[in-house]
Amino acid sequence: MRRVVFNQKGGVGKSSIACNLAAVSAAEGYRTLLIDLDAQANSTHYLTGLTGDDIPVGIADFFKQTLASGPFAKKGKVDIYETPFDNLHVVTATAELAELQPKLEQKHKINKLRKLLEELAEDYDRIYLDTPPALNFYTVSALIAADRVLIPFDCDSFSRQALYGLMQEIEELKEDHNEDLEVEGIVVNQFQPRAALPQQLLDELIAEGLPVLPVNLMSSVKMRESHQACKPLIFLDPRHKLSQQFLELHQLLESGE
Ligand SMILES: Nc1ncnc2c1ncn2[C@@H]1O[C@H](COP(=O)(O)OP(=O)(O)O)[C@@H](O)[C@H]1O
Ligand SMILES: [Mg+2]
C-alpha cells in the first residue's frame, strides 16, 4: 500500500501527518518506509534528527541516476536510512531536489518514482510519501506512484477554495495517469472543536459531498514538542489525545483496505 499525503498548501500538516501515521504503522508492526519528496526535508529531520550536510542524499540521488546515461550509469538504486524506531525507514530529502526539478521535467522522468515504488513494495508493507507544498514534478510523480491519497485540510475559508481546485486536479490526474488512485479522504488538522466556524465549514463540505473523514486531529503544543524531540507522538507520548487520534485515523485508513 502506497499512500501519499498531499495538499499544495504549505503548513496544513502534511509532514506531521505523514510521519505520525508512518510511526503508528511501524509501531503496529508493519515494515514502513517514508519517502520525503520535499526539498525542505522536514520529515527527514523529524524522523532522523539529522540536519543540513549530515543528511545522506536519498531520493535526490535516485532522481539524479535517472538522468544519467551511458553504460556505466548505475540505475534505479536508492539509499534507505534506518531511523531509531523499529520498522521505520526513510528515504531522505535534501535541498538538491530543487535544482534537479527542471532537468527531471525536461527529460520527462515523471514515471520513475512509480517504478521505484513497485520495487520497494516487495520489501515494505506500507510506503508513505510526503510532498512539497506545490503541484510540481515531485507531487505529480507521487500521485502517479501511489495508490491512495490523503488530503490534510486546516478548516480555513481560503483553503476551502483551494480544496475544490485540488480535488479537480486529482481527478484529472487519475484520468490521465493513474486510474487506480483512490482518494481516501480529507482529514482535518488542528481542529478547534469549541469554535463554531470550523464545524460549520466542515458541515458544508460534507453536505457538498466532499469525502471528509470522521476523525479530526486536534491542535496541540505536543506536536511541536514532538518535532523538537525528533520523536513521533506515538513514541513520545502514546497516551496523549493527539497520539490517540493518530491511532484512530490509522485504524480508519487501514480498515478501508
Ligand atoms: N495538530 C497539530 N497541532 C499543533 N501544531 C501542528 C499540528 N499539525 C501541524 N502543526 C504545526 O504546523 C506547522 C506546519 O506543519 P507541517 O506538518 O510542517 O505542514 P506541511 O508539511 O503541510 O507544511 C508545524 O510547525 C507543525 O508543528
Ligand atoms: Mg511539509
- CATH architecture grouping: 3-Layer(aba) Sandwich
- The counted number of beta strands is 7
Mean model confidence by pLDDT: 95
State the end-to-end CA separation: 9 Å
* Estimated structural class: alpha/beta
- Read across the widest sheet, the strand sequence of neighbours is 3-4-2-5-1-6-7
Mass-distribution shape: globular
Based on CA atoms alone, the radius of gyration comes out at 18 Å
CATH H level, superfamily name: P-loop containing nucleotide triphosphate hydrolases
Assign the CATH class: Alpha Beta
Question: Bound compounds, please?
Answer: adenosine-5'-diphosphate, magnesium ion
SS strand fraction:
5-15%
Number of domains: 1
* Poorly predicted regions: none
Count of helix runs? 11
Coiled coil: 103-130
Protein name: Chromosome partitioning protein
Domain AAA: 5-183
Pfam families: AAA_31 (PF13614)
Notes on the structure:
- A seven-stranded mixed beta sheet has the order 3-4-2-5-1-6-7, sandwiched between helices.
- The longest helix has 21 residues, at 157-177.
- Strand 3 and strand 4 (88-91) form a beta hairpin.
- The chain is 47% helix and 13% strand.
- Helix 1 (14-27) runs parallel beside helix 2 and helix 1 (14-27) crosses helix 11.
- With 257 residues, it is of the alpha/beta class.
- It has eleven helices and seven strands.
- It has helices spanning 14-27, 42-48, 59-67, 96-106, 112-120, 137-145, 157-177, 196-207, 221-229, 233-236, 241-255, and strands at 2-5, 32-36, 81-82, 88-91, 126-130, 148-153, 182-188.
- The chain has one domain: Rossmann fold (3-Layer(aba) Sandwich), CATH 3.40.50.300.
- Magnesium ion (MG) binds next to helix 1.
